Amino acid sequence: MDPYLQAAIEEAELGVAEGGIPIGSVIVHQGRIIGRGHNRRVQKGSTVLHGEMDALENAGRLPARVYRECTLYTTLSPCPMCSGAILLYGIPRVVIGENRSFMGEEALLRSRGVELTVVDDPRCRQLMVEFMAARPELWNEDIGE
Prior knowledge:
By secondary structure, the chain is an alpha/beta fold. It has eight helices and five strands; from the N terminus they run αββαααβαβαβαα. The longest helix has 15 residues. The model has no long low-confidence stretch (mean pLDDT about 95).
């Protein structure tokens, strides 16, 4: 398995172990993880700490040129907010663990030149299927249904 996707999965597993939503992300620059995070809406009482946003936050303040050389790995297809951040910072590549549980703004990202790779990873799917069955109210709160 891709070690960066594995790191994102480990973040997702950490999130669910903390009582949160199992979505994880890492940002990779020149072969090194510079930011990692997981959905911490529940843990922090936050409206914006999705996995991708948490990874960006944890990467810290960096020059725009760094983001333009990064690949973002995420266990689930990015929502509109996270897709906006990807576009804002010019991240050119996104590796998505799975998009069956939720299809984010992949068409928008592609239309703006972002290279997407959908892995359809069984562990990513399992994390979401189990979570959505166990905590549908939390999933619906997060996704706005």
